[in-house]
Design a protein that fits this description.
Layout: E1 2-12, E2 17-26, E3 29-34, E4 48-52, E5 57-60, E6 62-67, H1 80-89, E7 92-97, H2 108-121, E8 125-128, H3 144-150, E9 155-156, H4 165-177, E10 182-184, H5 189-192, E11 197-198, H6 201-206, E12 210-211, H7 214-230, E13 234-236, H8 242-253, E14 258-262, H9 264-268, H10 290-302, E15 307-308, H11 317-320, H12 337-346, H13 352-359, H14 361-367, E16 382-392, E17 411-421, E18 424-428
Parallel strand pairs: 1-4, 1-5, 6-7, 7-8, 9-10, 10-13, 11-12, 13-14, 14-15
Antiparallel strand pairs: 1-2, 2-3, 5-16, 16-17, 17-18
Helix pairs in contact: 2-3, 4-7, 7-8, 8-10
Length: about 425
């Protein structure tokens, strides 16, 4: 279907555009951008559709560089199909899925399976991330060249830290040769031990075993040192502590090829949220203290933290509706990430341009994707946002198969109302004509 989007406020960080214009979509590509594109020259229905976007924001399709779609092997939690529908409802047009599936995405066959399922069932673009080590065991490297050839866009053992520094050094060297970035899950298991939440006053009050900030920070420092040694590209996942932000900032200042992301829960919630023993507030890394949240926000503002990812981690009631100690970690995030990020704009921490950049252009650049920008000839991956739209989070209405969100019942503002992937409408609110 050809589309003409009229009177939108277009925000495109790549070109630093922020102004009202029309966007014409033909053949899945952006054909024209500008003011006053006449409807009279637009193909008649059913071959064309005009959308009046007056008062709404049009941006490049959102890109999540860190999510878990659980397929193959854990389809009872999420599938590529359901995860992509959740992404589309959240305004995402591209999802990069982690390798901790069953079997692990550590070989060509699994990568090709994911891509085949994506072609047949997904409504968004799906980009697989391959494992660094075989079966995520941290003992021997996966076949990195084979994974690259099969179509992975990065490498990560996310969910399990790579404790062997020598093996990570070799992985960085191999990955550099194939033009791939390693996404590091920074956690020292010897310091995490049996902890289930952030170590501090709240954990002591609740009688729960704590995880110190140092469990993340010592591994961030180690991985930065290895990136500096090898000259390879390193990306730090789900940054949650002030010490990690400081270490990354200092490494960037001296020219280390390190980038980083955080997730909305790490700039929205603190460990105080755990006081009700809600297992939906259990995640890894854990929710931290107020000063950590403030530093994470500052890191987003000054560019130390390059991107905002969801770390969408579906879990069912089987894993979550148990005692806090035994509950699985992780939360779903694809359908709440945009309004939670826009809270940073509403509160004056980020400009709208900065927020959109961290959801679009930056993750595209970090994954080497030719996406995240609005220009003639580019794929028509577009997200239309109503900045004034307020909704109460109701997880029972989510497109995801899982319901593990700590934001149930929150009143949030600023939601996607139309998501377009390669010129095809994959999500729209019913009231949008």
């Amino acid at each position: 279907m050809n589309l003409l989007i009229k009177n939108a406020r277009v925000v495109d960080p790549a070109s630093e555009t922020d102004g009202r214009m029309d966007v014409l979509v033909e053949g899945g590509k952006i054909a024209k951008m500008g003011q006053g594109i006449p409807e009279s020259k637009f193909p008649p229905l059913p071959g064309g559709r005009v959308i009046d976007a007056t008062g709404n924001l049009l941006v490049p399709g959102l890109i999540d560089m860190h999510c878990h779609l659980r397929e193959p092997g854990l389809e009872y939690k999420e599938t590529i199909e359901s995860g992509s529908r959740a992404g589309a409802a959240g305004g995402y047009t591209s999802l990069a899925c982690m390798a901790n599936t069953l079997p692990v995405n550590d070989n060509r066959a699994v990568t090709e399976y994911i891509l085949r399922q994506a072609r047949e069932k997904a409504c968004t673009h799906i980009f697989p991330i391959g494992a660094v080590t075989k079966e995520l065991k941290g003992e021997s490297l996966a076949e990195i060249g084979e994974l690259k050839e099969a179509g992975v866009v990065a490498l990560s053992d996310d969910g399990k830290p790579l404790m062997n520094a020598g093996l990570l050094r070799r992985a960085l060297e191999y990955a550099r040769g194939f033009g791939l970035t390693i996404i590091s899950h920074c956690e020292d298991l010897n310091l995490t031990s049996q902890g289930v939440m952030n170590e501090g006053f709240v954990s002591t009050t609740l009688g729960l075993r704590g995880i110190p900030n140092a469990a993340e920070e010592v591994m961030v420092l180690r991985d930065i040192a290895l990136a500096e040694l090898t000259g390879a590209s390193l990306h730090i996942a789900h940054v949650s502590t002030a010490g990690s932000v400081r270490a990354i900032r200092q490494a960037k200042a001296r020219g280390v090829k390190v980038t980083a992301e955080t997730a909305p829960h790490y700039f929205t919630l603190t460990d105080e949220a755990v006081r009700g023993y809600d297992p939906n507030t259990k995640m890894n890394p854990p929710l931290r203290k107020t000063e950590d949240v403030a530093t994470v926000i500052a890191g987003l503002k000054d560019g130390t933290l390059d991107a905002i990812a969801t770390d969408h981690a579906p879990q069912t009631a089987i894993e979550k509706d148990v005692e806090f100690d035994y509950a699985a970690g992780g939360i779903i995030g694809l359908e709440t990430a945009l309004p939670l990020t826009l809270r940073l704009v509403q509160e004056g921490h980020l400009t709208l341009m900065e927020a959109i950049e961290k959801l679009t252009l930056k993750p595209a650049h970090l994954l080497g994707l030719d996406k995240g920008r609005l220009k003639v000839g580019a794929d028509a991956d577009l997200t239309l946002i109503d900045l004034a739209r307020e909704q109460t989070v109701e997880v029972s209405q989510f497109k995801s198969k899982s319901r593990n969100s700590p934001f149930q019942g929150w009143r949030l503002k600023g939601f996607a109302i139309l998501t377009i992937v390669a010129g095809r409408i994959v999500y729209r609110v019913p009231e949008l004509s």
